């Protein structure tokens, strides 16, 4: 590792590169170098792909303090914003905007994600999960769990909620994968984004002509009322479609792998019907795996004093919530997967005004999945060696590309 120089006037050329690499053979743990930064406790500068040197904030309390601070911005177009990869284009969804525009647009799509509305969807999600398990069990006793189960569950659910035809899943899954891959070129990501925008825009046209009882039709009404441009509505559709399936799918597959590697924890979920135990297990898996592993990205709007340093206006900030969730000052023995611990304070859904809009939906889907799959397929096992698996080190959402399982 490089020297420990920090702060204003620091010898920044020594800044370590970010993102850092995970240790071989430890697919569930954040990079050791990130852990070492957290042990030191101080803020420090890191170097990104473009040579820029934003601040890295590793302690849980500092992370939450900063993410709740109105003097930080998520606006990717601001100078100093620490972008994870080269960006093409000028139009973005509200996840990359600041209030008041962020809040105005977010409010337009909040209603379907309230706990009450999400709970009303639970029986339908249970039917989807049971149907996919029936299909698995009626075929040969081995499959790739990603394709057979982990991807279809959240894709079917978000399609139903948005009003997107599930028959188009190959198209939107493929383009979403490219859009969040850091190894794709800016041109490839630009094309994938353009494809998705074009698709959502066309769909929006149909919804405006023939409104149905779904989220996109609701946005269509707002477009007609002049509250939202067609482009803004399409950007929102892309955000919701992508966030709605990619994240939860990776939590299902990676979570299953983590449980198969921890048989005592697998047994706990397999043998329980207690909703509280299942809900607690979901929180712990979210904390432990923290699949959004490239950090929350922000830029300071004003000078901010924190942890003995001053982040100057215009400087970039990276808040890696994966290491925040492994802070021993908040979670005892943080590197142990312990489904019985109280993990509810985790920051896997972020913190502050941009905290995940879809978290009630993600929680409910994961609760249904984790309480059903292992109970119905109690002999589930990995059908390959852990070292044979390919992990999504290159994506902004972490997970496994394939998960061969047998039963
Ligand atoms: C386990 C699954 C999920 C995880 C771990 C996750 C994680 C996150 C995180 C960390 C953020 C904060 C981004 C930031 O601070 O910059 C976020 C925001 C967001 N998530 Fe999720 N998410 C999940 C599922 C979902 C689902 C199912 C949806 C549904 C469509 C969704 C929609 C969103 C949206 C719209 C935002 C932007 C919120 C804003 O900017 O105000 N997410 N998510």
Keywords:
single chain, alpha+beta, Cytochrome p450, 3-stranded antiparallel β-sheet, disordered N terminus, binds protoporphyrin IX containing FE
- What's the structural domain tally? 1
CATH top level assignment: Mainly Alpha
Task: Give the SSE order as H and E letters.
Answer: HEEHEHHHEHHHHHHHHEEEEHHEE
> For the record, what is the CATH homologous superfamily label?
Cytochrome P450
Spans of at least 5 consecutive residues whose pLDDT stays below 50 are 1-11
Mean pLDDT: 94
Biggest pleated-sheet summary: 5 strands, mixed
Brief characterization of the structure:
With 407 residues, this protein is an alpha+beta fold. The protein is built from 15 helices and 10 strands.
Describe this structure in words.
Helix 9 crosses helix 11 (230-260). The protein has a single domain (12-406), classed as Cytochrome P450 (Cytochrome p450), CATH 1.10.630. The strands form three sheets. A five-stranded mixed sheet has the order 1-2-8-5-3, covered by helices on one side. The protein has a three-stranded antiparallel sheet with strand order 4-10-9. A two-stranded antiparallel ribbon has the order 6-7. The chain is of the alpha+beta class and 407 residues long. The protein is built from 15 helices and ten strands. It is globular, with a radius of gyration of 21 Å. The structure holds protoporphyrin IX containing FE. Protoporphyrin IX containing FE is lined by residues 74, 94-95, 106, 239-240, 243-244, 247-248, 251, 291-292, 296, 348-350, 354, 356-358, 361-362.
């Amino acid at each position: 590792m490089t020297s420990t120089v920090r702060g204003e006037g620091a010898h920044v050329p020594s800044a370590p590169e970010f993102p850092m690499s995970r240790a071989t053979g430890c697919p569930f743990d954040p990079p050791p170098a990130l852990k070492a930064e957290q042990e030191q406790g101080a803020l420090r500068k890191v170097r990104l792909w473009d040579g820029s040197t934003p601040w890295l904030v590793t302690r849980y309390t500092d992370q939450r303090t900063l993410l709740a601070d109105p003097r930080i911005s998520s606006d990717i177009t601001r100078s100093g914003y620490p972008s994870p990869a080269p960006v093409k284009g000028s139009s973005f969804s509200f996840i990359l905007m600041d209030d008041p525009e962020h809040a105005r647009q977010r409010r337009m799509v909040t209603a379907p994600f309230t706990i009450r509305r999400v709970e009303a969807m639970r029986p339908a999600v249970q039917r989807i999960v049971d149907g996919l398990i029936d299909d698995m069990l009626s075929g040969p006793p081995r499959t790739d769990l990603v394709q057979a189960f982990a991807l279809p569950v959240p894709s079917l659910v978000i399609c139903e909620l948005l009003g997107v035809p599930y028959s188009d899943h190959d198209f939107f899954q493929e383009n979403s994968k490219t859009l969040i891959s850091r190894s794709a070129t800016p041109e490839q990501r630009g094309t994938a984004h353009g494809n998705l925008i074009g698709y959502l825009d066309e769909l929006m046209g149909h919804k405006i002509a023939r409104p149905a009882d779904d989220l996109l039709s609701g946005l269509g009404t707002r477009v007609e009322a002049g509250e939202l441009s067609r482009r803004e509505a399409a950007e929102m559709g892309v955000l919701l479609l992508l966030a709605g399936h990619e994240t939860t799918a990776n939590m299902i597959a990676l979570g299953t792998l983590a449980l198969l590697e921890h048989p005592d924890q697998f047994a706990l979920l397999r043998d329980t019907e207690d909703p509280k135990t299942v809900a607690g297990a979901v929180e712990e898996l979210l904390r432990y795996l923290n699949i959004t592993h490239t950090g929350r990205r922000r830029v300071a709007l004003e000078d901010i004093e924190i942890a003995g340093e001053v982040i100057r206006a215009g400087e970039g900030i990276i808040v890696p919530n994966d290491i925040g969730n492994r802070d021993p000052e908040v979670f005892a023995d943080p590197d142990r997967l312990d489904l019985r611990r109280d993990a509810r304070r985790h920051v896997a859904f972020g913190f502050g005004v941009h905290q995940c809009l879809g978290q009630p939906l993600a929680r409910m889907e994961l609760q249904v999945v984790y309480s059903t799959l292992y109970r119905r397929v109690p002999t589930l096992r990995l059908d390959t060696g852990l070292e044979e698996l390919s992990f999504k080190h290159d994506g902004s959402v972490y997970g496994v590309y394939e998960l061969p399982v047998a039963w």
